[in-house]
Design a protein that fits this description.
Elements lengths: L1 H9 L1 H10 L10 E4 L2 H4 L5 E6 L14 E6 L11 E6 L2 E8 L3 E3 L10 E2 L4 E7 L11
Helix pairs in contact: 1-2
Amino acid sequence: MESARRFWRALSPIWLFHEMTLPPRAAVGDDLALLELPSLSNANESVRSYRVLTPVLSDLGFYPGQVLTMRLLGKHEAPDAFAIVAVSVGGRLLLRQFVPPALLITNSRQVLAPNLPMIENVVIIATLAPTNAPSHTSL
């Protein structure tokens, strides 16, 4: 397996495409996959890029395959009301919308996924950077 990775890395443009099409850090049931893009990650330590894997927020314009730039939250920092957030729950990485004071919801007619109350094992790790909000203008 490692020799195959070295081969693909030697073909730099192809390797970058491969890395962006196959999520490197995703598990079964995850809504998001962390992308390891050194050019983006090293530029700002408080920002991470994630690929959307499921349509849990499709009614808000977030679909599988989209790459989202999200800002990491501090330990005692809360997201804005109705913000799009990355959530860690028991080792899974989920995409939800934060509804104050303590609810994380889905917003999709395509997928039935559970809403989450903010309990001990639910941790909001990042919030959507303002530049990633989908456009809701009609064509």
